[in-house]
Amino acid sequence: MVAVKYLTHLERDKETRKVLLSLAQSIQERDIVTYEHSRRVAVYAQRLARYLGWSRREARDLALAALVHDLGKTWIGNDILNKSAALSTEERQKMERHPITGARILIGYEVHPFYVEAVLYHHESWNGQGYPAKLAGEEIPLSARILTVADVYDVLTSQRPYKAPLTTDEARERLLAGSGTNFDPVVLQAFVHLLDITPDFTLAQNICGISLKSLRQPGFYNMFIAGS
């Protein structure tokens, strides 16, 4: 008779962390720009989650989800990922499938639905005009609503092939313009307040040039977080 091993909660948690960090490494190897973006989003999302009252463990889990939120982009060609001109309709359709692709990869690894939902729905909009499922309002998991704000803030303040970075003040105003349409107003207001009260909130683009070996250290999840 074959013995069946039942993993404890801590063992499952450890295995999930190993899987997600391994997938983060695959992003790093495939596209360093997407990897560094994901690292910054992880920090912003963790800070925001803690500010909203999430426990350290919950915020850490959200940071892990943020590390792989663009996992599906590893299946998109560089001609689209690095294109400096506007995407064609077909190219945009391919790009907008990356949350589905990423979620399917996570499902294949049998990770907890929390991570799958955060990845799948991080491009949904409060007004229901996002993708891929066109969820609206509180239909969107809170994890994804937090990731959306953190994700967009980093895109706005980062150098991209198609745009120069905005200043913190410019990004702040752009985010506020999307309150109630792109973003959950409550989550956005919390993020803006956190931005206003935290000196040097915006991470430099090279701050994420850290090896995956460093990411596996216990202190990683609280790195850069004021008061941690």
UniProtKB/TrEMBL annotation:
One Pfam family here: HD_5
CDD domains on file: HDc
HD domain location: 34-156
Domain of life: Bacteria
Domain HD-GYP stretches: 12-207
Official protein name in the record: Uncharacterized protein
Annotated source species: Dictyobacter kobayashii
Lineage of the organism: Bacteria, Bacillati, Chloroflexota, Ktedonobacteria, Ktedonobacterales
